[in-house]
Amino acid sequence: MAYTACLSAEWMKTRRSFSSWLVVIGSAFVPFIMLLANLFRPDSARSLYLKANFWDLYWSNAWNPVATFLCPLGVILSTSLVTQLEFRNNTWKQLHTSPQSYTSIFTAKLSVLIIMFLQFLLLFNLFIYVSALIPTFFISGIKMPKGFVPAATVWKDNWDYFSACMPILAFQFLISLRFKNFLIPLAGGIGLWVASLIGISWKHNYLLPYGHSTLQFMSRKNITGIDPTQIYSSAAIYTIVFIVLAYLLYLTQKEKG
């Protein structure tokens, strides 16, 4: 009951913040750009919609910038924003004097971040379908391709990118709880993400947690030297270690907020 009440309170806080809009805007950005490209280039759109593997191409094209850029950067920004709410509103002391345990507060804040990420993925999948549907109403000679991306592919891709970004979420959560200045976790996260992209060609690139999402997408292209199993295991270990470390640091921190 304590956790449920705390989770509800944390969720209400995010409803009034920019982070909630960030989820919607971020999930709609790429599908919207793809929609505009089809509407303003009808000849290319007709050629695309006639392809037998339309959904495979459309799905892959949509995930390309999301997996490599929007997912990592979105997680960095949204996690930093949500976690820093108490610092910005100067409400940490008020929160800690409420009848909620530190464990409930910690897990509720982390749960909200995970739910928001899942919400992003759900909306992104929906917007992909809608962006493919709209041109059929405005461009003559275009019909909606039958079916959709196979359910197994949809589930696998969403799970892979979710698990690949969890180390980023966990580490951003850790450093956002430690620093009052919003720019420190934001700049740190972006710096680590850029460093991971630079190190993509490294033999042990799976050890770079901020590059896991990009590596997952590259594995779809059957690029040699990328083992999805190593990414899975590395992401799981990093996520657990970062969350446990964040929890312990939060409990032992003398002045919380």
Describe this structure as you would to a colleague.
There is one protein chain. With 257 residues, the chain is mostly helical. It contains 12 helices and no strands. Helix 2 (18-40) packs antiparallel against helix 4, helix 4 packs antiparallel against helix 10 and helix 9 crosses helix 10 (183-198). The radius of gyration is 20 Å and the shape is globular.
What labels would you give this structure?
mainly alpha, 257 residues, 12 helices, globular, 0% strand
Weakly predicted, low-confidence segments: none
Task: Please tell me how large the radius of gyration is.
Answer: 20 Å
Coarse morphology = globular
Derived structural class = mainly alpha
Q: Average pLDDT value?
A: 89
What series of H and E elements makes up the topology?
HHHHHHHHHHHH
Q: Beta-sheet strand percentage? A: under 5%
Number of separate helices: 12
Please bin the fraction of helical residues: over 70%
Largest sheet features: none
Distance between the termini: 25 Å
How many runs of DSSP E, i.e. beta strands?
A: 0
